[in-house]
Amino acid sequence: MRNKDFELLAPAGNLEIFKGVIESGADAVYVGGSMFGARAYANNFTDDEMIEAIDYAHLRGAKVYMTVNTLIKNSEFGKLYEYLLPFYERGLDAVIVQDLGVIKAIHEWFPSMEIHTSTQMTVTGADGVRFLQQFGVTRVVMAREVSLSEMKRIHDETGMELEAFVHGALCYSYSGQCLFSSILGGRSGNRGRCAQPCRLPYTVGGKKDDYILSLKDMCGIKALKDLCEAGVYSLKIEGRMKQIGYACGVVSYYRKYIDSMEPVTKSDYEQIKKLGNRCGFTDRYYYEHNGSDMVTYVKPNFESTAKDVAVSSLKIPVTGKLYLVEGQPGALCVSAGDVSYEASIDPVSAAMKAPLDESSAVERIKKTGDTPFVFSDVETEIGDNVFVPNGALNKLRRDALGGLMEKLLAQYMRDDARYVTDEELAVIGDHDVTDDDNVTADHGKQAQRMICSCMNRGQLEVLMDSGRFSDYYIDFDMYDRKSLVTDFADDLKRLKADGKAVYLMLPAIFRENVSDYFRSVAQKLDELPFDGFVVKNYEQLYLVKTLFAEKKAVLDHNMYTYNDIAKSAFCEHGADGDTVPLELNAKEIAHRNNTKSEMIIYGYYPLMTSAQCVHKNTSGCDKKSQITYLTDRYNKSFAVCNNCKECYNTIYNSLPAMLEKYTDQLKRAGIVNFRYSFTTESPKQVRKVLSGDVAEFTNGHYKRGVE
Q1: DSSP class of residue 440?
Q2: How far is CA 321 from CA 318, 332, 360, 383, 396, in A?
Q3: What is the per-residue DSSP string for 553-596?
Q4: What is the rounded distance in angstroms from the CA atom of residue 142 to the CA atom of residue 479?
Q5: How far apart are CA 609 and CA 643, in angstroms?
Q6: Could you read off the pLDDT of 158-170 as tens digits, one per residue?
Q7: Of 20, 281, 470, 563, which residue is least crowded by CB atoms under 10 Å?
Q8: Which residue numbers in the chain have pLDDT < 70?
């Protein structure tokens, strides 16, 4: 008997694998359709295949979740409604989503659709869940880095249904916080096109060809009891790009041990490893923050002995009652579970010659052919001297099984989608700057704000001396936790004396330790006369608007406002401004709502934010914040900053972006707030940047954008 405490969620890259994983024991399957999926290079399902998959799963008691987990541009948003509508009406069980604008739209358009947040949303705490609950989210997929103890706390505090990755590839970066592939080669992970630069070798500290960013595959089959105790419901297997032998094999082993809840045997564990792994397995994120034993260090070839398997469609058992009595309409009632359907034919006549043979009639009724059904039993009530032509029996069977299938599928179909006009959809993708947006082509009507953000005191002193900036974003981790409030108050006093606006820029990742600390100092912080916060995740936005009623919240670039619907969703729930996403190009920026938006016109773009630590994994942990350098095969060096207070690394691009020469163009697009983002620069380098001395730089995505 299946263990209903868990849902076993399997991937499928095509219809054959889809059927195979259901046959192997998956309770639900997640798939990508022809648009908006985070595996652009997979053999994604056509629209017809998606309908077939939905029906196939529902007839067999399984569920289908569709990935709509890329960030969507304004120009694309109008296509979303028509794309999803037929799947919604057919009974699609849930969508997996990254873009907050998509969540908002789906919740409004398709009220009965379950919404699961993608791991790309980087949800790491209960406050992030609370924020998303406001949008009708029904399940949150945890960031892979979140521990079991954190999951338990999230579940206990929010009651949210949780999904956790249990098997497959691990990203080095927190999902959704990686621009490495995007910035280096134009293939964005946020758009389903990651080129996996984390699987390439780098030189670190003189050691060449070190695969320091490559993680082993996850295998959580030894942790099933712990996952259950943590309140996790859905166990997700990664692998929509994997072959059928791997997918079906992995599902079958997890099905076995989920149902038995017995410890996995050594031999079965080795068999699972043979199905596919990268330099072995790890489940350390469930129990530890990071670790060198999670890293492959050598070339991470995916080793697999899995063989293709033949898939036969899983038949649905039904029972039948055949009624053939002279002078009465012939009837066949078929049942699957508690659903029944009865078909009939013309009244049965007396036999002119040989009467109908009961066993022959039953045999013909049982010939279900290519239908999804198989008879487990057929009861009969047949008269002694009756005759029914074979064609009539065939018709009776076809009508009965066809009617049963329609009745079974009808339970899932919907007709409550909100009607959305073409005019409504067209407006989304065609935003132009107008007076109504509080900005105009004549940018002189709104005061220009020059903003600087800094990570350390040396940078801050240079920036204050320059007198160039109106707004200061001061990094939370510039201060020691024991004296944060008093030290920040001192800097605030100096800046306010010069009439500056001051914001506290919060950490990139907000796990429970820093969240608890933030709550502990919130009251004292709120007493200080600073203007607000720069927030980088959902946890922070919820907390800031809950604890600091009078403080503003400005979204950083990684709180993605690719489209105007996302921006409005954030603004409706506490955001007072946003930062233009780094992957949008000039044309896309010109066709978005840039009211209260700011643009980073200088800075080293963050390529990855990771729970792993390059310094620790190469030199050991000394709990000292410092910069380590990665050098790639093209001899480009990338600074890696280890944030020891919150225990995460940020990898920065090898060159800064410099877009200052485009400010007039950006003003015509409605942007009048410009930010210089200082991260790894020394005070001397800051002075050079402010003087215009930037020898090498990049335009980022301003010219090319991403597919």
Answers
A1: -
A2: 10, 6, 15, 14, 12
A3: EEE-TTS---SHHHHHHHHHTT--BEE--TT--HHHHHTS--TT
A4: 29
A5: 10
A6: 999 999 999 999 9
A7: 470
A8: 38-42, 428-446
